[in-house]
Amino acid sequence: MSGRRVFLLAFFATTVLLAAVVTVLAPQGPHGASSPAAPPGSVPSAEPGAEAGGRSGGTGKPILGVSWSSIWSATVPKGEAVPERVLGTGRCGALHRWATARSAVPRGTSAVAFTLAAPEDRGLVVRSLRVVEGRALPVPRGRDVECVGAVDHTVAPGLGVWGKLSLDAPRDLGLSRYARPGATVGGVVEARTADCSCEWWIEVEVLEGDARRTVRIDDDGRPFTIAPPVARIGTDAQDASQRYGALDVALARGAVALTHGAVAPARGVVAPGRAPGGSSAHAVRLPEIRAQGVWMAADREVPAVGRIVGNPDVPGVVCERVERTLMAAGAHRAGYTTYALVLADRSPPGYEEAVADVSLHVVRVERPKSRPTGYDCYPAGWSGWEPDTRERISAELVPDAPVLPFLTAEPLRFHRDTAAGPATDVLYFGVSPSGAGHLTYHFTIEVTVKTRSGEFARYTLDDAGRPFVLATRPDGVSPSNGEHTYYEIGERIG
């Protein structure tokens, strides 16, 4: 065989091998099929969101929600037990971070915040947006979690909701958003489904000068996920509590030791036509209003607070971050605190035909091993102590009184905001912890609702499966001489 023939055969074999390698590495569609070549003049297939080659790019991340009425639910695979530290009032952010780190799959609705970056040398215009269904996934099995009033505080205020789109009935959402050269533009999209357990992503059509491109928005190269909705964990009363100034409530199915608003086994006569379980109750600690600040006590000094209050000139932000940081470090609310008891009923009795008996049950009282560290933080505009006038009655916790009744035959006046929603009523009350030295009280709220017909329901209310916790203020500490006291006006006191 001549040298020329050997060379031609070797060249032909090498060409075939390279063609096979290129075929294997060709881009694949969402279901594994190779992406066909785009015909002339068409919009190219969505490209990865990361900016490359001087072109626009984008990225997104799953979030809780963007309004006080948002409800976020997800399933954590493998049924992992949910730790107590991420459940309860004001802990939705912690629950979302914990669940997301464990590949939780949103149920029914998935909200995503995203940004698009324009090239450095030219701007872009967003013309349309759509959600795209990817490959099917098994319906997740595991632990269901939920947040009521799930506002995501990590979302920049300028990111508004661009649209709410369905994966079951896809459509393009027409838009007109501009980003100047080198700048970014972004928003929030809510994807919804009734029956899709699948991966999904966002495709955004942009104009860069005269060039049209389609940019894919996903979670740093990974598709988002979603699955059909599951039965609600929260009750009507927990949903309604958001209207009365309650913070977000983080919940988990099957992870609670107490009934947190479920009707206890009823003893008595159920009135005809009223379905058991049509009523619910919820109790929640309310944020301080007007002049009251954040009073908390920790079993040790928390250095992270000093970094937060290094610039306390941001009204409405510093004290909120201080409270979240202290709660994460195991600190407790200290001193007089307001609670709201929200009652909801799908078919309530007539006007002034129902009454409530309410009492506090102290589960345990703890004494610290050493003097606790007290923290005070007062919002901008604070002008001294002003009692909260919402409550008409208060209860004082004392070490030797495990049961403390404070409302007896209190009339209920249910009000219905919408024809389809439940009727609700709310009772405000204050709780003041007391006792020699520094004490921490763990307590539940016991409620009995009675009607003239003889029906009654009993509730044991807690903080998402664990008792409410309230501490006395450290001895000798007042709002003006606290060891760690801050105002949101740029001045550190103490």
Write the layout of secondary structure elements.
Layout: H1 3-25, E1 57-63, E2 71-77, E3 88-89, H2 92-100, E4 105-106, E5 109-117, E6 124-136, E7 142-148, E8 161-166, E9 173-179, E10 184-192, E11 198-208, E12 211-217, E13 224-226, H3 236-240, E14 249-252, E15 279-285, E16 294-298, H4 303-308, H5 318-328, E17 332-333, E18 337-345, E19 354-366, E20 373-378, E21 394-397, E22 403-412, E23 415-416, E24 423-433, E25 440-451, E26 456-461, E27 468-471, E28 484-487, E29 491-493
Parallel strand pairs: 8-10, 20-28, 21-24
Antiparallel strand pairs: 1-5, 2-4, 2-7, 3-14, 5-10, 6-9, 6-11, 7-14, 11-12, 11-13, 15-18, 16-17, 16-20, 18-24, 19-22, 19-25, 23-24, 25-26, 25-27, 28-29
Calculate the terminal CA-CA distance, rounded to whole Å. Answer: 96 Å
Mean pLDDT: 79
Count the beta strands: 29
Estimated share of beta-strand residues: 35-45%
Roughly how many Å is the radius of gyration?
29 Å
What is the tally of helical segments?
Answer: 5
- Backbone structural class: mainly beta
| Largest β sheet strand count, sense and barrel closure | 5 strands, antiparallel
Helicity level: 10-25%
Number of domains: 2
Low-confidence stretches: 1-45, 256-276
The main sheet orders its strands as 3-14-7-2-4
Indicate the overall shape: globular
Region (Disordered): 29-59
Signal peptide: 1-19
Keywords: Signal
